[in-house]
Amino acid sequence: MARKKSVSKWIAGLLIIVAVIPIIVMMTSTYLSTKEMLVDRSDRDKSAAVAMIDHSQDSLHKTAQKGLTGILKQPAFKGSFNLKQIAAVISAAETENGTIENAIFATSDNKFVANSKKLSSNFKPTSRPWYQGAITHQGQIFWSTPFVDVNTGQYVMSVSKAVRDSKGQVGVLSFNISYNAVQQALAKLQIGRTGNAMLVSSSGIVVASKNKKLIGKNISKTETFNQVKQASSLKGSVLPKHETAIQRVYYRKDVNSSTVGIAQTPKNEIKPELSAIVKTSIVVAIIMLILIVLMAGTITAIFKRVINVFVSAFKQVGAGKFQKISTKSFENSTKIDKLVGKTVQADLNGDEFQQLTAHFNKMIDSTGKLVKSIQQEGGKVSEMSDSLLGLSKQTSKATNEVAQTITGIANVTSSQAEETQKSVEQLQDLSAIVKTMRDNVVGINKKSQESSQINQSNIRTVNEVKDNWHRELAKMQQLTDNMTETNGNIQNIGKIVGVINGISHQTNLLALNASIEAASAGEAGKGFAVVAAEISKLSEQSKKSTKEIEELIDKIRTQSQQMVKQTTDSLAGGEKQTNLIKKSITSSQEVSKRSQLVINEIQKLTDASQKIVAVQNKVLENLENISASTEENSAGTEEVSANSEEVLATMEEFTGHIEDLNKIADQLKKNLAKKFQIISD
Length: 681
What we know:
Layout (H helix, E strand, L loop, with lengths): L7 H65 L10 H14 L3 E8 L4 E3 L14 H8 L5 E2 L3 E2 L6 E10 L5 E9 L1 H9 L7 E6 L4 E4 L13 H8 L4 E4 L10 E6 L4 E6 L6 H48 L2 E2 L12 H9 L8 H170 L4 H149 L2 E2 L3
Helix pairs in contact: 1-4, 1-6, 6-7, 8-9
Keywords: Cell membrane, Chemotaxis, Coiled coil, Membrane, Transducer, Transmembrane, Transmembrane helix
Main location: membrane
Subcellular location: Cell membrane
């Protein structure tokens, strides 16, 4: 059996969620506000701590400054320096003022008097930092950085000042001041729960600290000290990287002594307080959650019982029992039942449940009246359905006869439409064949025109070739004439070479005779003999060169004759080619004329096919109109036949429905009286 679903779980869950969310918000707000308050308290403690360190240092500085000024006003420092008197003065001052320790006075010649008895015999005061600092800052008080006193092992700071006597000699008065007062003040401080405050020198050495274990430690490499040292302001706070707000560090810098007061708290400073808040919040939340669950259970139970009242009433309506919701059953019950009864009491001016009850009771009254009316009308419906059944049977028979007649007419009309459609299809086939033939004719006409255009282009091209060929023949003829003229010139060059050859031969004979005459002249003809020898050499060279020229001219003449012959042959061949080109032009023109005649005949054939298509289209249009009319008549007849059959089917269905209605009317008459009951209070 399926488990019944209930909205009560959702209502209870919603109530719990609505109540839990404020609790969570309240707990979160309390946690955050408490955390912020604790962080603020810690910040105030740290700020007060560094302020106290600064105040302690300031008081220490003022006391030291007052003591130093009071000592230097003594008569021992007014005239010439008297070391014995000065020794007595600084001893008395150290005794009277608890701040002054290890007082010493030294002059520039390393003479000194001191209260300390532990100084070595080779002690040179002028090499000490306190002396050099005072000399460097003459007219001012010099404050040294903190250092460890060798006698006490504690951190101290020296205070010194340079003075001159009546003779102009320079001396320096110095003494140490201890940080005990600062350390004692730090020990009394309470910085949160586990916080610490300390005084640190400029070099990172812890001089005084609430946590005594840190005194003397070097913290110069820590991120906290470096951030404080790099800070531009004299006081403020810094937060190291990756640290929480509770770990914010407060500081104050002292310019005179180059020290800084630092106060800080660890990460777990407020962890106990926050843990306590969380535990308390959890306990309170659990208690409130228990109360909320109890309240949600009670409210859900009441709401569920109220809903069950309406569910029970609707179940009775579903079963055919129309009864109003009454509160009489809740009068002598528990307080919860009485509350439920009051909740579902019918009242149009009440709350939503009371209004729902009132409208439900009103619906029962209206529905009861309607059921009674339906029971009374059921009999009338049964009688009328019997009469309507008889009429529908008669109508169905008449409709059947009409449908058979119309079906016969539709068959004849359909046969005529099919024959007309076949004629249309055959004519469409013929039209397609004519169209194909016409397309072929158009294609042939187009190709013929393209062929004619190509032939005309060929004729123009051949004419251009003929004209170019004539120009080339003219140029070739001119070249032949030029070569013939060149050949004649070459012959003339041969004649000139022959003349030069004769001159060379005569010159050689003259040189030979000159050589003979020079030899017969003896010493007097030696110079002439040399000239004659040179002339003979030139003559031989001219003869040799002339012979080479003759050979070269013979070669040129032979080649020139060959070129003339070849050019003449080419010219004769060109004349033959010209004749062939003329014949080609004549043939192309004849082909063009015959192509034009073919194009004209094809155009006539195209026009004739267009007329055939026009007539065919007209016939096809008439047949299609006839076919359309026949099909329309057939469709109309078939539609009428279908409508008549549909009417027949409708009438048969209508008759069936009337029969069903008749049965339903009888059944309704019985059921209304049997199943529906009107229950009065």
